[in-house]
Amino acid sequence: MDRGGALVTRALRAGDFDDARRVADEWFGHPVGLTMHRLFFDQLGGSGVWIGTEDGVMVGVLLGLRSQPEPDLAYIHFHMVDPTWRGQGVGSRLYTTFFERMAGLGCTRVRALAAPTRTASIRFHEALGFSGRHQDGYLGPGEDRVIFERPIGERGDATA
Question: What is the pTM of this model?
């Protein structure tokens, strides 16, 4: 469905927490629990990305950061897109905006995680050029994850 009109991107703000938390379980399709904690928005939100309509309706959020122990690494903690906006490039725009910001800080690679059962997330990351490897118990017993990584260039694009 083409909705027309421009979408606006900006840095995620601490004040976006309430709107994001209100829709998170529905948009993810399952309870997210402390995966979405206010602390992330308050302390790390500025490196994340908010995308919405020109009149301020949120349609997507990405929370990511530059790694402190590995300054060349950007890490995406989560992203979510309003289900009615999926398939219209919102998710990839969140990611490419984040890539560009992190490349500007000197990051040359980006990492993200997905549960092995989240096949749509796995396909999404692969379509954006990520390579993934399965790791048993990555988040603890029974909490396997696919660890995705891809390079980013100076403008946020993929590098060879």
Answer: 0.90
